[in-house]
């Protein structure tokens, strides 16, 4: 293969101006000749960026033939067989995954139609598997847009919530619980949203005013409870609410605290067959144990030990099956 450059080689832009600025720190002097570029409103900065972009466009245009030949050769050498992507999620007995075939499948989300600077952070289905929800984030952002699509409706339908950090579905096929953040990006609120209603009508379920606490929302594996987890660097506190709570009654869901916060004590909660299972380091050795408590009395004093890590071992996580 023979590659030749274009007869007209693009001319690089002139180097940007230099304005030395002296900074003293830790007894040393630093000279920055390009500190002026931190001012985004400087017309010289805009002109220089425009010149660089123009040069890049002209350069790659002049080398279009060479780029095309290189792409074709690399594709021939690096061609790989298309295979089904690994399983992505399992929800209430249904498996959701991606595949390369165009036959016999319904496309729920094609990321190619999202903006270039946008990515999908999380995907969940409603209880009855007819409302598809996905959380998108723009590059560099922590808060995203939560989208809903009703798969049973023939006419186009999409509902969007803004400023969402994380979310889970309730157990009534219409309620979503999501977290919102402070101005410094600390998730501190849990809101309840009814699909089909405006976000302005959403209900504040919980708010944490302690600046050291990071609030997250989850659900137990059996979908019986929504969990509100308040975590600091060295402690945790878990609240639960009935995932099937009916907001049409006008009442907020009742929040129950599994165990009050104790400095240095972490714990994580799941539920199965009228019992809570707790992974915690609440013991003098500070090694994690698996505890169990009845649904009627989940307080710390009723916890019964099921398993303790041996010396030199650590229980990283717990999962529950039938």
UniProtKB/TrEMBL annotation:
Pfam families: Peptidase_S9_N (PF02897). One of its GO terms (molecular function) is serine-type endopeptidase activity. InterPro entries: Pept_S9A_N, Serine_Peptidase_S9A. Residues 1-20 are annotated as: Disordered. Residues 26-102, 106-321 form the Peptidase S9A N-terminal domain. PANTHER family: PROLYL ENDOPEPTIDASE-LIKE (PTHR11757:SF19), PROTEASE FAMILY S9A OLIGOPEPTIDASE (PTHR11757). Belongs to the peptidase S9A family. This is Peptidase S9A N-terminal domain-containing protein.
């Amino acid at each position: 293969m023979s590659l030749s450059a274009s007869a007209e080689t693009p001319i690089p832009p002139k180097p940007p101006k230099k304005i030395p600025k002296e900074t003293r720190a830790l007894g040393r002097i630093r000279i920055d000749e390009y500190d002026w570029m931190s001012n985004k409103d400087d017309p010289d900065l805009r002109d220089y960026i425009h010149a660089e972009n123009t040069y890049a466009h002209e350069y790659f245009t002049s080398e279009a033939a060479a780029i095309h030949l290189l792409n074709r050769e690399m594709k021939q050498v690096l061609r790989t067989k298309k295979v089904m992507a690994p399983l992505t999620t399992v929800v209430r007995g249904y498996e959701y995954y991606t595949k390369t075939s165009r036959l016999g499948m319904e496309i729920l989300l094609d990321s190619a139609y999202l903006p270039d600077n946008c990515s999908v952070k999380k995907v969940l289905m409603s209880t009855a598997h007819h409302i598809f929800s996905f959380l998108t984030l723009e590059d560099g952002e922590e808060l995203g847009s939560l989208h809903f699509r009703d798969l049973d409706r023939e006419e186009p339908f999409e509902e969007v919530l803004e400023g969402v950090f994380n979310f889970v579905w309730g157990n009534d096929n219409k309620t979503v619980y999501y977290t919102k953040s402070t101005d410094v990006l600390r998730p501190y609120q849990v809101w309840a949203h009814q699909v089909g209603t405006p976000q302005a009508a959403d209900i504040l379920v919980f708010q944490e005013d302690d600046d050291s606490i990071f609030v997250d929302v989850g659900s137990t594996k059996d979908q019986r409870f929504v969990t509100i987890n308040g975590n600091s660097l060295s402690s945790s506190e878990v609240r639960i609410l009935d995932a099937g709570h009916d907001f049409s009654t006008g009442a907020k869901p009742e929040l129950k605290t599994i165990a009050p916060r104790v400095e240095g004590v972490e714990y994580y909660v799941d539920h199965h067959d009228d019992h809570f299972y707790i992974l915690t380091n609440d013991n003098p050795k500070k090694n994690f144990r698996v505890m169990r408590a009845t649904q009627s009395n989940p307080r710390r004093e009723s916890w019964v030990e099921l398993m303790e890590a041996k010396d030199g071992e650590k229980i990283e996580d717990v999962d529950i099956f039938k």
